[in-house]
Amino acid sequence: MNASKFIVAAVAMSISVTALGAGGHEDGQAAKNGEPAKASEADRTITVEMHDNYYEPEVIDVKQGETVRFVVENKGSLVHEFNIGTPAMHEAHQEEMEMMVEHGVIQGGKLNHDMMEMDMGNGHSMKHDDPNSVLLEPGQSKEIVWTFSEKGNLEFACNVPGHYQAGMYGDMNFN
């Protein structure tokens, strides 16, 4: 296998594993801890600001069965992610994010949207469109609506290379 086919295959495998993030990634934690919902079902709205390597708020309290509409705003100067998952899911997702940097999809403070559309085979691309996650350029804002179906070890994090390690994550505390 030549090098370019190997890279494409490796990225496709990584993305196909990560694409399961909301439904069955790792040990099935996401599936039992929550699922996407509609904004009309939200019990409340929480605004989350992403700054360069930290979030405001740093901790989010949720209730089992609660549906939360997260309005996520990137107030930093770099591309950042808001991703709801278990620590193991974030660790696995960081490999995909590293590949996105290596292939020029994430370029510091901007995203190469053309590269995100690149066909990786088997219907996979480098799009970052999982229902438990948003990837935003500086000044952008998007929403995630999530129902927390069962108590679990959840956190929110930015998995852009180096950001999680610099402390850009927070806990989801169940009440």
Write a compact overview of the structure shown.
By secondary structure, the protein is α+β, with helices and mostly antiparallel strands.
Describe this entry's structure for a reader.
The chain has 175 residues and is α+β, with helices and mostly antiparallel strands. The protein has a single domain (3-174), classed as Immunoglobulin-like (Sandwich), CATH 2.60.40. 23% of the residues lie in helices and 32% in strands. The chain contains four helices and twelve strands, in the order ααββββββαββαββββ. It has helices at residues 3-18, 29-33, 87-102, 113-116; strands at residues 35-36, 44-51, 54-56, 59-62, 67-74, 80-85, 106-107, 110-111, 133-136, 141-147, 154-157, 169-174. Helix 1 runs antiparallel to helix 3 (87-102). The termini are far apart. The relative contact order is 0.26. Residues 1-31 have low confidence and may be disordered.
